[in-house]
Amino acid sequence: MTRALGLLFGGRARRRWIHLILGGALAMPYVLVGSLIVGPLTGVDDVFRSLPLQLGSFAVGLPIASVTSLFPLTRPLESATVRALCGVDADALAAGPARTAAERARTAAWFTLHLGLGGIIAGMSLALPPFAVVLIALPAFAGLRDTRLGLPEVLDHGWVLALSPVAGLAALCALAACAAGCGALLARWAPALLGPTPRDRLAAAETRAADLAVRNRLARELHDSVGHALSAVTLQAGAARRLLDTDPEFVREALAAIEETTRRTVGELDAVLGVLRDGDAPGTAPAPTLASDLEGLLRRTRAGGQTVTATVGLDPAALPALVSREAYRIVQEGLSNALKHAGAPVAVRISAPGGHLEITVENPLGAAPAPRPGGGHGLRGIADRVRLLGGTAQAGPSADIWRLSVRLPLTTPPMAADARPRPLPEGTA
């Protein structure tokens, strides 16, 4: 019983009832236009004195309403109203105006349906409640049984008079049931008539995927550039503090490295934010590469007291720009892991055998990255970069060392590869 009353008179039912009343209010101008057509055709001056002529005017006005629904703002306004009053999910409705013929036809069908059902429910809402109140009060007020009110004389019979309050309540419940039913139908049909087409859904999904790709790239760039800089500066500052009294020359070099690292990182941060301003076109966002800053990266890492040996068996300037940029970030992240977790020498090897770029970063096994809460983003970032370039990567212990090994093709990378974030596999790619 409680559930039935909630369906008929609950908050959602009342909001949908208001939605129908608004449809009836919108229908009134079209009914007036219909009366201007029905009146001359039937030879009646006042069509509103006759219920059949009122219904005829209503029927004539609805096709006119369907034509006016072709205005561009109709679908956005109707969608907003449906979201607010009918409880339909916003994702199921189109926000923009109808553009194609099919979308306009569906919008016209919805507008006609809304005004048609709304006009019926609005008329019932105007007529039934006063009549129901009279039936409910009829046994208590003899004056209401005056036939001048239009009530039938049969109501003078006792048993009929006793049942009139029941009939009044039934009329109110019937009105609520009709309103709830029509509101439920409109809520069910709204996604089909006002919702986006498959093409719109595909375009929205592509937009969301592009936005997610930009966010993922921005996160990778921030992690690699800013994270490495903070690790390097922390190590350099710590080394300078320890040697402040014994090795002033080293302290000066460390402070110079800190200054260079922070200045360069500010520039990289501007470049990373440019990804949001200029789009996510691969290779267009300014960023350091092996050709432009490999030596600087190694120098700044060594300035913190870290022993780094590098073997470069190729000319970095000969690498494709995209490969050179991503390779720089991979080397940077490998050194960042060493800065955070290693206290032993780090070896970097870069070569290009057989049309592939091979990068290896090694340090003793005792300095391998240890699990830490919220950590591991760097290795996942390397995995994402390698996968987008169509390469392979492996990271993990090998004999008595921790090795990060990456192999990248030097040809155009297959940018359509699966880009979903996955952890970097340990041991094998």
From TrEMBL:
Q: Can you cite an annotated GO cellular component?
A: membrane
Per the record, what are the reactions this protein catalyses?
ATP + protein L-histidine = ADP + protein N-phospho-L-histidine
Q: Which residues form the Signal transduction histidine kinase subgroup 3 dimerisation and phosphoacceptor domain?
A: 215-279
Indicate yes or no for the key word Phosphoprotein: yes
Q: Which InterPro entries match?
A: HATPase_C_sf (IPR036890), Sensor_HK_TwoCompSys (IPR050482), Sig_transdc_His_kin_sub3_dim/P (IPR011712)
Q: Which UniProt keywords apply?
A: ATP-binding, Kinase, Membrane, Nucleotide-binding, Phosphoprotein, Transferase, Transmembrane, Transmembrane helix, Two-component regulatory system
What sort of enzyme, by top EC class, is this? Answer: transferase
What EC number(s) are associated with this protein in UniProt? 2.7.13.3
What is an example of a GO molecular function annotated in this UniProt entry?
A: protein dimerization activity
Residues that span the membrane, as ranges: 20-41, 53-73, 109-142, 162-187
Task: Please indicate if the UniProt record lists Membrane as a keyword.
Answer: yes
Record-linked Pfam families: HisKA_3
Question: In its UniProt entry, what is this protein called?
Answer: histidine kinase
Native species:
Streptomyces filipinensis
